[in-house]
């Protein structure tokens, strides 16, 4: 009983922090910002739906690309069609949107259950998939900022950010290579260094590194590696275009109607940072606030328009999955909360 009580308290901490942050933010906005709700409604009603629907279509293509990439990473174990993995992808991301980051492992769990494969194998692939995501997003972000047009405001800042991001990307690649050849040593060293700070954290980091190393060893050919890399870049290009189309949907706001791809990548980076702590439902509003603040702060978009644009970006890039994800879960007889609980139990048994 005490253990369960302690776990319950740990789960409440992020909620308490997030609620306090929202309250403080709302107080600051109320006292420092003049916000016209009528203007917000007018901006939402005036958006170009063609841009929005095109962005939604691109993101759905992205989910199919994720399934294709997972199928490629799974090739040394079993050959499967991407379509077989699409359902678990949709259900897994829907669970994250509704339940939070605790549902991240639903996808590998559902794929393992669907294919009758060990969960450990899918966790290894999940770790490598995340690495491909980080690498592709970093390459796209770095290259776009490094070649930013000279007439863009804060051009020097963009170029420096691009150069730093590119250097960080190369460092990540070097780290991945070291794990490929000396993963066990790196995992053990990390565990020893972190144990004085927190034994639980040390074990978690050790487990993640081990999973990642297993995933790296699953990649048996250069062809698989380059194909997965190309799919990752294409997928993240589609995600960036989803943000760009969401901005350009506001045709009555000149800044957004002519929004550049370089500016979009900066918003994508901010969005990724804001989504690190994904709380159920409440996270939708905090993410909209993060996007609105970035649009207003970096590009001087009026607060009402920036908030409306942030809400549309959130819908196009994440929330649009909810209807089809819930339908897929219903058709497959899957309850999201049960899937989250079972995936967590499987991970606990493996640790």
From TrEMBL:
It comes from the Bacteria. It is found in: Cell membrane. Keywords: Cell membrane, Membrane, Transmembrane, Transmembrane helix. It is a multi-pass membrane protein. The chain crosses the membrane at residues 12-29, 49-66, 161-182, 225-249, 255-274, 305-329. GO terms for cellular component: plasma membrane. This is Lysylphosphatidylglycerol synthetase/UPF0104.
């Amino acid at each position: 009983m005490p253990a369960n009580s302690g776990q319950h308290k740990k789960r409440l901490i992020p909620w308490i922090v997030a609620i306090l942050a929202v309250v403080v933010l709302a107080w600051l906005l109320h006292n420092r910002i003049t916000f016209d709700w009528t203007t917000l409604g007018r901006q939402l009603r005036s958006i170009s739906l063609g841009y929005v629907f095109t962005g939604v279509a691109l993101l759905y293509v992205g989910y199919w690309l994720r399934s294709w990439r997972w199928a490629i990473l799974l090739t040394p174990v079993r050959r499967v069609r991407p379509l077989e993995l699409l359902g678990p992808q949709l259900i897994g991301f829907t669970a994250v949107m509704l339940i939070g980051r605790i549902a991240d492992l639903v996808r590998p769990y559902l794929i393992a259950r669907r294919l009758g494969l060990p969960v450990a194998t899918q966790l290894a692939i999940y770790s490598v998939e995340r690495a491909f995501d980080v690498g592709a997003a970093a390459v796209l972000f770095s290259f776009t900022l490094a070649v930013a047009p000279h007439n863009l405001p804060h051009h020097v800042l963009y170029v420096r950010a691009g150069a730093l991001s590119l250097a960080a990307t190369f460092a990540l690649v070097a780290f991945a290579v070291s794990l490929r050849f000396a993963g066990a040593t790196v995992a053990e060293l990390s565990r020893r260094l972190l144990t004085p700070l927190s034994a639980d954290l040390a074990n978690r980091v050790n487990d993640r590194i081990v999973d990642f190393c297993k995933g790296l060893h699953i990649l048996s050919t250069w062809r698989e590696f380059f194909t997965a890399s190309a799919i990752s870049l294409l997928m993240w290009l589609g995600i960036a275009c989803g943000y760009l189309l969401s901005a350009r949907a506001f045709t009555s706001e000149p800044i957004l109607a002519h929004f550049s791809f370089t500016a979009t990548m900066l918003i994508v980076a901010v969005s990724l940072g804001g989504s690190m702590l994904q709380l159920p439902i409440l996270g939708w509003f905090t993410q909209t606030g993060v996007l609105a603040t970035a649009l207003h702060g970096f590009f001087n978009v009026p607060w009402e328009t920036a908030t409306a644009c942030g809400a549309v970006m959130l819908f196009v890039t994440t929330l649009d999955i909810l209807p089809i994800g819930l339908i897929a879960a219903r058709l497959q007889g899957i309850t999201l909360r049960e899937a989250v609980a079972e995936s967590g139990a499987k991970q606990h048994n493996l640790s």
